Amino acid sequence: MRTRSAIFYGPNQPISVEDVELQGPKTGEVLVRVAATGVCHSDYHAVDGHINARLSPTVMGHEASGIVEEIGPGVTAFAPGDHVVFTIRPMCGKCKYCSTGRWNLCDGIQAKRGHMVDGTTRFKKLDGTVLYMSHALAAFSQHTVVAEWNLVKVRNDVPIERLASLGCAVVTGVGAVVNTAQVKAGSAVAVWGCGGVGLNVIQGAAIAGATKIIAIDIAESKLTFAKQFGATDTVDASKNDPVEAVMDLTGGGADYTFEVIGNPSTLRQAFDATCPGGTACMVGVPPSGGEVSVPMELLFRDRRLIGSSAGTGSPRVDFPWFIEMYRQGRLKLDELQSRFRPLDEINEAFEDMLSGEVARTIVRP
Ligand code: APR
Ligand code: ZN
After folding, report:
1. Do the bridges between strand 233-236 and strand 212-217 make them parallel or antiparallel, or are there none, so unpaired?
2. Is 41 a catalytic residue?
3. Candidate from 234-248, 251-265, 345-359 with smallest mean pLDDT
4. For the CA atoms of 323, 147, 27, 130, what is the dihedral angle to 10 degrees?
5. Strands, E assignment, 62-202
6. What is the CA radius of gyration of the chain?
7. Ligand 1 nearest atom to the CA of residue 50, by list position
């Protein structure tokens, strides 16, 4: 079938929105009409060269929700009309990691980057050139074909476009707090970076019962969003030393700190701002080859530096409770979607993210 998709051709080039050819679902695959796709900094990491450019040309996008249109042979868990949310990692459901609730580490499905597990993709340009698929999802597209292990079926009485960010920003942010760091009620938490993911760390900390939630950013507009998502204090790191500020506000360091930018320098700040016995949790995607060093007094102070990718946990367990929290007014999804744009405005949507004007821009393909 013909569909329309946003294509990455290489670093520092505008994204191109084009009509493309999409092959139908093969065994274990599902054709989805995409309802909404969040614009995430992970998409942009390839564009600005923060990480080594992925394969190109690639249909971009990974944070999305949609409605099943067709199922391939062997699919039993989904039917046309089902509402689904994409997950950024496949879940085989059988490996050691899936079996112990660490779906994000699943090693049971070996697919080449940008490809489906059979080593091919479902997208082609109209001239026949193969298009790779970001995260095997290719979600900046009107339609896409996704493996069933990358989908979670959700209740259909919640507007499907509101659920677009569950699979990346929400699970990564809230999951880092609740599943990975396991923040305790009454804790002091500090969060570096208040973008779409950082705001979810902040609301995750509020859900977990943290009583001090310090938001740190260099953009004043982001600190305003942070308060809306539950920050009790804010620090403008363009004007103040964030480590000193956290030390002052907590009387000696935060119990948990989260770095949600992906920079070695801010990760070191987050580590330095923990109290004895405290935990620094890395959430931002590091630059390719990035390293950080920490003082070896780590030992004497019982401090921990941990990584959290995609929020640990399991989407089939976590998405339903996120949705329930949203229905109860305890998880902010509407507020996260500060701007909607059509697919043709994908480049403007990235500009929204970089300008700091929005919590998240959502593309409606
Ligand atoms: N100090 C404090 N805040 C900073 C700094 C800094 N030195 N540099 C950037 N920031 C802020 C930006 O102002 C912005 O608000 O970090 C925030 C990043 O937010 P987004 O660009 O919206 O990125 P987001 O989608 O939230 O992703 C953040 O998490 O999952 C990863 O890949 C993702 O690495 C990315 C990170
Ligand atoms: Zn993402």
Report:
1. parallel
2. no
3. 345-359
4. 140
5. 63-71, 83-86, 123-125, 130-133, 143-147, 151-154, 188-192
6. 20
7. 34
Q: Is the pLDDT confidence value at 51 over 90?
A: no
Which pair of structure tokens corresponds to residue 168? 């990346």
Tell me how far apart the alpha carbons of residues 202 and 229 are, in angstroms, rounded to a whole number: 6
User: Peptide bond preceding 295: is omega within 30 degrees of 0, i.e. cis?
Assistant: no
Q: Is 62 among the catalytic positions? A: yes
**Contact yes or no for 99/90 (Cβ under 8 A):** no
- Using CA atoms, how far residue 173 sits from 24, 62, 160, 259, 310, in Å, is 33, 16, 20, 11, 8
Q: Which of 261, 263, 361, 362 best tests ligand 1's pocket when mutated (most atoms within 8 Å of CB)? A: 261
Q: What is the pLDDT of residues 178-224, one digit of tens each?
A: 999 999 999 999 999 999 999 999 999 999 999 999 999 999 999 99
Among left, alpha and beta (phi > 0; psi -120 to 50; other), residue 193 is left
Read off φ and ψ for residue 2, nearest 5 degrees: -85, 140
Q: What are the domain boundaries of the chain?
A: 2-161+337-364, 173-309
The secondary structure of residue 128, as a DSSP letter, is S
Q: How far apart are CA 98 and CA 101, in angstroms?
A: 5
Range 44-69 average pLDDT: 88
Average of per-residue pLDDT across 112-127: 95
User: Check: CATH 3.90.180.10 for 2-161+337-364?
Assistant: yes
> DSSP 3-state helix, strand, coil percentages of the chain (rounded to 5)?
30, 30, 40
Q: What is the pTM of this model?
A: 0.95
The amino acid that residue 241 corresponds to is: D
Ligand 2 centre to CA of 104 (Å) is: 13
At 42 the pLDDT is 85
* Cα separation, 171 vs 169, whole angstroms: 6
Instruction: Say if CB 123 and CB 138 are below 8 A apart.
Output: yes
Q: Which one of the ligands is nearest to 195 CA? A: 1
- State residue 40 phi and psi, 5-degree precision: -110, 150
Structure tokens at 150: 């990358």
Q: Report the pLDDT value the prediction gives residue 289, as an integer from 0 to 100.
A: 87
Identify the CATH number of the domain defined by range 173-309. 3.40.50.720
> Reduced to 3 states, what is the DSSP secondary structure of residue 73?
coil
Residue type, 279: T
